[in-house]
User: What shape does this take?
Amino acid sequence: MSKDSKLLKRKRTTTSEDISFYIITIPFMLFFFLFNILPVLASMTLSFFDYDMVSSPIFTGLENYSRMFSGDDVFMKVLGNTLKFSIIAGPISFLLSFMLAWMINEFPKTVRVILTFIFYAPALVGNAYFIWQVFFSGDSYGYLNNLLISFGFITEPINWFQNTSYNMTIIIIVQLWMSMGVSFLANIAGLQNVSAELYEAAAIDGVRTRWHELWYVTLPSMKSILLFSSVMQIQAVFSVSAVIVTLAGYPSVNNSVDTIVSYISDIGTARYEMGYASALSIFLFFMVLAFRFGIGALLNLVGKSDS
Assistant: This one.
């Protein structure tokens, strides 16, 4: 067989494989478009309209976006709460999930499996945060109030979730407790797949401490896993709503712990202001996108020497 014939046959084989690939991915791409791309495009379009799901949409231009910053005091509160919550709970939960995975990875296999299950257990149980509702119950039967009254620290029970001095801190603690989910397991898997040869090569090159080993070997080998973990944590902290509504109610006292997601739910499903709700959703989308690229830039610094 001549060289040209071989090249032609290889080209036909490649073309056939490409066609098969596209045929296989068509169902996935169709569903991805229908349930991901199309809703985003619809939200972007609706954000320029006044629409109550009954009357015909009325084009209002940028009025919904202008309303966010100039005519909606509640939005400014929930925006501040969301940023505060994400800036505190996001990085802590990300670092916590990695550091726990890193430490657990040092244990023997049997102990590692048990510890992994223990830390992942809250994510397995759907509504596990209800235990915190009992623990911080506002009456004297709540575990914490009962304990404090018994030891004489307080004389009257504290309504923890209705007190603006405590509710945000408590919500952050609950979110951190629940944050050991997919990102935690991803970090465990990533640590297991770092080649031992890399550590040996690093030792030959002069790496002696565990922290240098972590910075120059472990983290660079896990960049893709770390990016996945960070994206999952971003999604978790920016979309938190059910926990807050369940524990503190909606609206919370002075909107002290309400987030953009819970506000969008109220605007869209209770008030039927779908145009404004869509504008809020698009704003949240771009805010999450900005955080994602910011974290990606930070992860690019991993493993680089100061010199």
